[in-house]
Design a protein that fits this description.
The chain is an alpha/beta fold and about 210 residues long. It contains 6 helices and 8 strands; from the N terminus they run E-H-E-E-H-E-H-E-E-E-E-H-H-H. Strand 4, helix 3 and strand 5 form a beta-alpha-beta unit. The longest helix has 18 residues. The structure holds iron/sulfur cluster (SF4). Iron/sulfur cluster binds next to loops.
Length: about 210
């Protein structure tokens, strides 16, 4: 007996903020799943939500209903995604809130296109549930402020990121991320991930250019 293969279509649910779902979000998702008979809903490792397996016609209708462009343009002067743990507001171990800083980093507009994807992981304490040492930009909360890490990667060639600074306030952190990424985008070759860039440049050279 042969089985029909699932269509390999997928569509993101817009507006899901670092995987935090309200009752309204859940009701809207349920409504869409029922309406389109969506075969699979996937929460990704990046804390986003994707609808999978719709027939192309249905997929097109869903994309239209969600107001998504048919082929989303990649905004290369922004970070690719921000992943954040529940932080102090929701977790008993958290020493800092993660929500407002996640939003501020998501909204950062840089001076030009980034060489490659930049993924951000924000952890509300040193237990580091968002694997911040293995993201392009990692933040780890300490009682005296944020530790800022750059150049980590968890893919085929993993790398532990380098610590740029610590004891930072929210505003100082966002400002330093902006400086770091602007330095990266003006110095790295196109398609060089931050991990490979840091192997070439080194933390001391980066600090010289980013820290005043
Ligand atoms: S990193 Fe810390 S604050 Fe965040 S979810 Fe894990 S234990 Fe909680």
């Amino acid at each position: 007996m042969t089985t029909k293969e699932n269509p390999k279509t997928f569509c993101p649910m817009p507006g899901i903020n670092a995987g935090m779902l309200t009752l309204q979000d859940l009701e809207r998702i349920t409504e869409l799943v029922r309406k389109y008979n969506i075969p699979m809903v996937k929460v990704t490792g990046a804390q986003r939500l994707f609808f999978h397996g719709l027939e192309p016609e249905k997929h097109k209708e869903l994309v239209q209903e969600l107001g998504l462009p048919p082929k989303p343009p990649h905004a290369r002067n922004r970070v690719h995604y921000v992943q954040a743990c529940p932080g102090k507001n929701w977790c008993k171990f958290g020493v800092k809130s993660t929500e407002s800083i996640a939003k501020a980093i998501n909204g950062l507009v840089l001076d030009g296109p980034l060489p490659y994807k930049v993924k951000v992981g924000i952890s509300g304490c040193r237990i580091c549930c968002c694997e911040s040492w293995m993201r392009d930009i990692g933040l780890v909360a300490e009682k005296n402020g944020w530790r800022l890490i750059f150049g980590g990667n968890a893919a085929g060639k993993p790398r532990i990121g380098d610590l740029i600074a610590e004891g930072l306030s929210d505003d100082e952190t966002v400002e330093m991320i902006k400086k770091t990424l602007n330095y990266y985008l003006t110095t790295a070759k196109y398609k060089t991930r931050s991990a490979r860039f840091m192997e070439r440049v080194g933390i001391e050279e980066l600090k010289k250019n980013v820290l005043e």
